[in-house]
């Protein structure tokens, strides 16, 4: 499963999803479950990378020792794109749910399965454990110093006010005076408005590649590239070039991507691979600190 703070639905491929099987995904056999229920209400969810369709159902769902009873799930029968993930576990808020179901983490709180109404992510590149998601709290041994908190400004996505983004030493500050951003574990890169992304990529010497619609970087220059600075909660957080440049064989590209018509920023895994993030559901705030 992909644990995604940028959506609110929990869905899995059904045994009727022929496309999912072609993709090699594992699928859920409802006939094998004694607790499965459905009224066969249809749903559709559209993501940046494609869409899924199916019926709304419910079943018991377990994460390690945590067992949620009667969790609303989407049972996907039709998908239009392959993924490395079999399904998605949405960790954003109820108003964003396309199936009308109570989100997984809200269920954990309501059913008293977690110690605190908090979950957190440690996705540090090169970490010995491969990264972790903590349900019910944080682990202070995985980050440096105290967490810096910023309030959720709209409880659909994990939306917050970002103070600025700049390329260190280049005088190319964007989002001057603050702008809307969402913290999204389900997005690999950092996505922003066209002109802002163009400015940042120009400052790091990235060139637009029309074939792939990405900004490419000379792989031999990575160690000389500047750090990117994010201003959040009156503090500065950093992303180093070996994290924001994605290396694929001998092809290197910038982790900063634009999206036509986008007016806010999507802060994805490029940021989370350098910074520990706590999602405080109870107080509706986000806590950030440099990751160990």
From TrEMBL:
GO cellular component terms attached to this protein's record: lysosome
Molecular functions per Gene Ontology: aspartic-type endopeptidase activity
Catalytic residues in the record: 4, 184
A GO biological process held by the record: proteolysis
Alphabetized Pfam families for the sequence: Asp
Organism: Drosophila gunungcola
Name under which the protein is recorded: Peptidase A1 domain-containing protein
Keyword tags: Disulfide bond
Start and end residues of each Peptidase A1 domain: 1-289
Disulfide bonds: 219-252
UniProt cross-references to InterPro entries, sorted A to Z: Aspartic_peptidase_A1, PEPTIDASE_A1, Peptidase_aspartic_dom_sf
Assigned protein family: Belongs to the peptidase A1 family.
